[in-house]
Amino acid sequence: MYPSSPPDLPPYARSIHHDGSARYVITRNGHEPELGESAEIRLRAALSASIDRVFLRSCPDGEQTIVPMQPEPPSAACRWWRATLPLSMPTMSYRFLLFTADGPFWYNARGLARHLPTDAEDFRLLTDYLAPRWVDETVFYQIFPDRFADGSPETNVKDGEFVYRGATARTRRWGDPPTAGQPDSMVEFYGGDLVGVEQKLDYLQELGVNALFFNPIFTALTNHRYDSTDYLNVDPHLGGNEALASLRKATAQRGIRFILDIVPNHCGVEHPWFKAAQADLNASTNQYFTFTRHPEEYLCWLGQGSLPKLNYRSAALRRAMYESPEAIFRHWLREPYSADGWRIDVANMLARQGANQLGLEVGHGIRWAVKEERPDAYILGENFFDGTSQLQGTCWDATMNYSGFAMPLWWWLGRFNVRQHTAPHLVESTTPWSTVALAESLDAYRAAIPWMIARQQFNLLGSHDTARIASVVGGDVGLARLAVGVLMTYVGVPCVYYGDEVGLAGPSADEGRCCMPWEPESWDRELREFYRQLICLRKTSPALIRGGFQTLLAEQDTLAYLRDADDDLVIVVAHRGPDSRPAGALPVWHGAIPDNVEFREVATGVQTMTADGNLPLPSLRRGITIWRARPGEPPRP
């Protein structure tokens, strides 16, 4: 019923495991590694593994070093090996060499291999890395300001107040469905503001979230505000700078943090920088842009003339955005606003213009400036694709984890598709995406970045740029709960898109930007309570906060994985198949879980105990079950 190891690998291969969590990488006092120190590196395998010798391979200053690992006394369920790794470089890469009865193997972040691997997927440790440690115990909540709560109707946009791309601004009644299609969808306003957010902090605190991510709040002409006309002022329709300062005080009192959204890749066509550059070739801001024929032809974001692209060949632009003491990136990290970090829009495209590929250089500069201003700031880059080159410790702390989390999960629960801005806009398959493809995608994106970064990755089920998860799963409540369960138990930092917790749906980005309903009778209260319980679990379980990760099972309709810490074990079983799958035994021997360990399902309280290397499971319904054990605790009645 459950698959065994791949045919070219021995059966015990599944039990060989290492990741960057504290059970496997031991540093002084458990803190982030520091340059010049050493770390104890551990590898584990099943008692039955025919392993004769294990070596730790690293490459300090480019020269290969191989040291023997010492066996530890066997435990009840596994064997361990240990070696010391001197931390002599900012990034220390390493992998393992195993000599077995079945021949030699290499083991790196992608797993066991007979071939000689490249260094690209080695395990990596970052030294002297300024980590935003607070995100470990954080659950974010994304707010699209115009659609969350209207706390100050007198500041609302008025009908006909301005015209943008030929469309006239108009007000909408709260709760009416949003328009689909541009440009009309961009200039309809419902009146949500920061005053409204402050008024709803009781709701957010009761839900359990402890950090907010706001879509742009700076002055602009659209409701999404990615067309900034003033980076140094909060839009008056959202309450202005005073509203943000007031919100900062209120959130600080409740222990809630927030990050702001900035668009350094482009600005709005009405921004004074661009207006001056258009009006005068000799304007000081002319170098901020790339004109191909002045004043009407210029580089812009994906051909959208309303969003002229910023040119980071300009030293003056770099000073204005992040380098100078009064730069925009620095300004909002200071009192009275004290933002806890930044989400950087289209970070995959930032400072990239044909022959001028300055993305990493500018990303490094932004990181240096932000961390100088506030070492614990969280720097999050938007990237729908492979952002791993920006996640090596010298650029962003995380990306919005679409490719490494959200999209594989969508495809497994719905259908596989690939989207792009140009035709053909959507390429899709009617064939269900396999569980193995899901597991391997998750593994690949974790393997491509240091574990410390994987722990900080910003995981989400949807956002203002996507369909809502309720629509992705076709309204199937069991699959929606499954998705939430994986979000809250996977490696990284979870984020809830406002209203998902009460059942909001939307088959497109525009339709998903609907108003938050504030009448409790309209909510899916059971779903909201499910969110609340899982948020609490995510913030309190050591295994989910800092524990390791190992896939236990990937079969046709079921994925099971282990999150482990010394004092906390969590097994997650996600089942997309029929509502009643027969009871069975989940193999856990390869997760180093001994027999006679009692697990309790967190939602139902059902208990089960490991035996013969397996965890007996009751029949599975479509959805998710989360089993937790606390080694060392006495059995509960």
The strand count comes to: 38
Percent in helix: 10-25%
Distance between the termini: 32 Å
Instruction: Assign the CATH architecture of the largest domain.
Output: Alpha-Beta Barrel
Report the mean per-residue pLDDT as an integer.
Answer: 95
Shape: globular
Write the CATH homologous superfamily of the largest domain.
Glycosidases
Q: What order do the strands of the largest sheet run in, or round the barrel if closed?
A: 26-25-22-19-16-11-30-29
Quickly count the domains. Answer: 4
Q: Proportion of β residues?
A: 25-35%
At the third CATH level, what is the topology name of the largest domain? TIM Barrel
Q: Rg from C-alpha positions?
A: 25 Å
The profile of the biggest β sheet is: 8 strands, parallel
Count of DSSP-assigned helices: 15
Briefly, what CATH class of the largest domain?
Alpha Beta
Instruction: List low-confidence stretches.
Output: none
Structural class: alpha+beta
